[in-house]
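User: Structure with magnesium ion, tokens only please.
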Amino acid sequence: MREISVKAEKLQKKFGDFTAVDSVSFEVEKGEIYGFLGANGAGKTTTIRMLCGLLQPTSGDAMVAGFSIKKDPDEVKKRLGYMSQKFSLYPLLTVRENIEFYAGIYGLTDAVIKARIPEVCTQVELEKLEDKITGDMPGGLKQRVALACAIAHKPAIVFLDEPTAGVDPILRRRFWEIIGALSDNGTTVFVTTHYMDEVEHCNRISLMHSGRIIKEGTIPEIKKAAFEKPILEIQTDTPVKAYDALNKVKEFNGDVSIHGALIHLITGMETAGAKALMEKALAAGGVEFTHPEEVEPTMDDVFVKLVKNYEAK
Ligand SMILES: Nc1ncnc2c1ncn2[C@@H]1O[C@H](COP(=O)(O)OP(=O)(O)OP(=O)(O)O)[C@@H](O)[C@H]1O
Ligand SMILES: [Mg+2]
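Assistant:
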């Protein structure tokens, strides 16, 4: 049977006249990794803070771990772990002392904490680093300490607000492996990110824009909703020239974008016809290019397209 960990219903937050979160509704299943994506200021942190019982909604409600964030924020808080966007560890304390401190806040007894520390350090791959001073550790490892602090009391749900921000790609990948293991063990993970490539690690995602959820679903579902039509790609040393040449072709109905040395062209035409026309237009514009082929949309493409569609409405 489907077990729901988080159910938000028309959750809204206003700061004065400004609506930061505008009537969002969604469900997260137990054990899922649910990704919240959106540009700066989209309303991700505000949503998380409401779900964690730290900020009262202006209207609407959410059930988190079986409790209403409006009526029982304290019951909610006990059942979750929260790694905030600007998490604060005590830099002069060791890894062990930081975890002890946070686990203490959650009411774990000294004996339980003592037994739990080696376990949680293994979980976040910080074995043998328990006695290191946190302030001396590189950013990617500090992030793991913050995660250890958020999960030491074995919460049913963890909220991670941009847990991989500023971390190098290799450590980011490792971090996602750790998150994957948490979810495999039945912990529900609610996570926000700016890195579009990271959505591949999520079971389902929500795209947030200006306080609203503009699309929700699995990645294939979202890609399909954004692009029914194929995307053609070329590689070129003169992307701006290629961009101009392709934008001149009326039949394409102008959806051309530059991604470094790559150009993406989306048309309403079928692939073979569009490809022939594209090659002709580039040749006419004197553009040299290689690798003309149909490609899968990246999440960046998807996000830009869905925001465009949303704003056109
Ligand atoms: N306490 C507050 N008072 C007034 N406005 C606020 C407050 N907190 C957030 N906001 C505004 O609400 C909007 C949403 O902010 P929020 O922090 O939720 O966005 P976000 O999606 O987490 O962005 P980021 O990716 O930068 O973390 C922003 O315009 C922000 O300036
Ligand atoms: Mg934020």
